[in-house]
Structure formats: structure tokens, C-alpha cells
Amino acid sequence: ERDEQRENALLVRMMKEGEKSSPALPVFTTHLGMHDYISFCDVGGKDSTAKAICRYELTDADHGNLYLMSGEFVAQQIDKGAIKGSYDRASNGTLQGIAIKDSVEAQRDFILRKGEAVFLLEKPMECRRVK
Q1: pLDDT by residue (tens digit) across 3-12?
Q2: Which of 15, 101, 115, 123 might form a disulfide with 19, Cβ 3.0–4.6 angstroms?
Q3: What's the pLDDT at 9?
Q4: How far apart are CA 105 and CA 99, in angstroms?
Q5: Reported pTM
Q6: C-alpha angle 73/25/67, rounded to 5°?
């Protein structure tokens, strides 16, 4: 099956149970291979081109699972030069933040090359649509 590269811009609000409001984040969706992905842009931060990428799947019309990047794996790949990006560590060595700063084409190739190792598939974040 041919990889379909489509990008759609959305505004997403990440809210905890009981929250009434939160800032809207611009996200882009795309389909690569057999999976769907969301990339987040930190437009209010230091680097508006930095992106975090998540894999997602819809389980029904109102629910889905979001799979976050495996920070340690991606940090290792940044150190090896497999993808451009940056990350910070706390004084105790804990990974605090990670940002992919490579071209869209390089991000696509990285995900297709490295596959499931890029994402924490055993720990999905459950999401639901707020109506």
C-alpha cells in the first residue's frame, strides 16, 4: 500500500476531567504506512518549529488512544544523528522535554525506518471527544 501523506490542521484542547477550558494547541494530522499521527507545534514557546509527534488510533466515534513518543529512544536517536532535535535533562538525569526539529520529510522517514520503537505502545493515553 502506498504511503499517503496528508496533513490537516486542527486545534486541540487538552483538558483533565472536570476542567472547563484550556489553551488550544495547533496540531497536524497525517497518515503514514498503516498508522495515523499527530504533530504538535509549540507556537508559544522558544522554538515555534519544534514538534512532538504522537501516534493515534480511534476506537470509536468519540474515543481514541494516543501513543506518546518514547523519549529515551528518541533522545538516543538524536545523539546518534538519526533525527535532528533537542532534549533537556534534570540534574538527576530524568528526561524533561524533547523536541523534533527536522524537516517534515526527515520526520516521516524516521518514523517509517524506526517503526514502533519510536512510540510507547504499551502505555496509551485514552482520549475522548468533548461535546
Answers
A1: 444 456 566 6
A2: 15
A3: 59
A4: 16
A5: 0.73
A6: 35
